[in-house]
UniProtKB/TrEMBL annotation:
A GO molecular-function annotation: DNA-binding transcription factor activity
SUPFAM superfamilies: Homeodomain-like (SSF46689), Probable bacterial effector-binding domain (SSF55136)
Protein name (database record): AraC family transcriptional regulator
HTH araC/xylS-type domain sequence ranges: 8-106
InterPro entries to which the protein is assigned, alphabetical: AraC_E-bd (IPR010499), Cass2 (IPR029441), Homeodomain-like_sf (IPR009057), HTH_AraC (IPR018060), HTH_AraC-typ_CS (IPR018062), MarA-like (IPR050959), Reg_factor_effector_dom_sf (IPR011256), Tscrpt_reg_AraC-type_HTH (IPR020449)
Keywords assigned by UniProt, alphabetized: DNA-binding, Transcription, Transcription regulation
SMART domains: AraC_E_bind, HTH_ARAC
Pfam family, one: Cass2
Length: 289
C-alpha cells in the first residue's frame, strides 16, 4: 500500500499549495514517481487529470470566498491564479454555471469539489482474468509522436493520433504486417526526459513485427520483462479504462508487484470496437516490491 500512501501525500501537497504555482513535476516528486506514471495513476483512480483537479479545487474555494466575504472579484481572481477577471469569469462559469457576480449575490447553485481522499477497493467482487508472461526483448514497428504531460497535452493528443492512423491507412497496414507473438495493434507509452516539472513521452501505435522495417515506419525495442497480461472484454471506449481502474484499485494493492517503469502495452484487435464481445489486452511490466 506504499504507493497509495505516496499518492495521498501528493494530494495533500496539492492542497497545501493550492494558492501557489506548482508543476506536476513538483507534485509527482512528493509521490516519488515519474511525472507520466503519477499523472496516469492519478487519472485512472480519480477519472480526472491533475490539472483539472487543481482547477476544480481552486474554483470551489473561490466560490466560497465570493459567497462569504466582500473581497473584490479582481483580487479573488488573482488569488486563485487567473491573470484577468475575464479569464476567471469564463472558468468560473464553466464549472459553476453562473458568473462570479451571481455567486456573490447568492443567485444560482454552486458545484463544490471537496478535498480528495484516495480509497482503494480490495473487495474483488468482479474477477480479473490475467496471466503472468516472461518474454525476452522483442521489436515493434509503427509510428510515434512526442507529447508533453504539461497541460494534459498527452491526454488530449493521443486520441487524435488514433484518429489520424485510422484515416490515413496506417491502422490497416499494421494489422496486415503483424507477424509477432502478440496479435493486434499496440498502444505503447515510452517515458523520456523530465524538464522543469514537465515530462516528455513518445506514444507509439505499432505492431509486433519480425523482419526488415517497412518504409514509413520506425522500430522500437521492448525490453525483456515479466508481464501481467490482463484480459479486457467489452466495447470501447469504456472497457479499457474500467480494467485499468481495477488493476490499480484491486490488483496492485493485493500483489507483491509494482510497475517496472518500462513501456506498457494496450493491445487492440481488428474486431468491431462497439461489440460486446470485443477482446483486448493490457500488458504491464512488473518488478518485485
Amino acid at each position: 500500500m506504499e504507493w497509495i500512501e505516496s499518492l495521498q501525500k501528493a494530494i495533500d501537497f496539492m492542497e497545501e499549495h493550492l494558492l501557489e504555482e506548482i508543476s506536476i513535476g513538483d507534485i509527482a516528486k512528493e509521490a516519488k514517481a515519474s511525472v507520466f506514471h503519477f499523472q496516469r495513476t492519478f487519472t485512472i483512480l480519480t477519472d480526472i487529470s491533475v490539472g483539472e483537479y487543481l482547477r476544480r479545487r481552486r474554483l470551489t474555494l473561490a466560490a466560497q470566498e465570493l459567497s462569504n466575504t466582500n473581497n473584490k472579484i479582481i483580487d479573488i481572481a488573482f488569488k486563485y491564479g487567473y491573470e484577468t477577471p475575464e479569464a476567471f469569469s469564463k472558468a468560473f462559469r464553466r464549472q459553476h454555471g453562473i458568473t462570479p457576480r451571481e455567486a456573490r449575490s447568492n443567485k444560482g447553485i454552486l458545484n463544490s469539489y471537496n478535498r480528495l481522499v484516495i480509497q482503494v477497493s480490495l473487495k474483488g467482487a468482479e474477477p480479473m482474468k490475467y496471466k503472468i508472461v516472461e518474454r525476452e526483448s522483442f521489436q515493434v514497428v509503427g509510428v510515434k509522436k512526442e507529447f508533453s504531460t504539461l497541460n494534459d497535452d498527452n491526454i488530449k493528443g493521443i486520441p487524435k493520433m488514433w484518429g489520424e492512423v485510422h484515416k490515413d491507412g496506417t491502422n490497416e497496414l499494421l494489422f496486415k504486417i503483424n507477424n509477432g507473438k502478440i496479435e493486434g495493434i499496440l498502444g505503447v507509452c515510452v517515458t523520456k526526459k523530465e524538464y522543469q516539472g514537465d515530462q516528455l513521452i513518445d506514444y507509439w501505435i505499432a505492431t509486433e513485427y519480425v523482419g526488415e522495417t517497412p518504409d514509413g515506419l520506425e522500430i522500437l525495442d521492448i525490453p525483456s520483462s515479466k508481464w501481467a497480461v490482463f484480459e479486457v472484454h467489452g466495447p470501447m471506449p469504456d472497457a479499457m479504462p474500467r480494467v485499468w481502474k481495477q488493476i490499480y484499485q484491486e490488483w496492485f494493492p493485493s500483489n507483491a508487484y509494482e510497475h517496472a517503469g518500462t513501456p506498457e502495452l494496450e493491445v487492440y484487435s481488428d474486431e468491431d470496437p462497439s461489440s460486446e464481445d470485443l477482446y483486448s489486452e493490457i500488458w504491464i511490466p512488473l518488478k518485485q516490491r
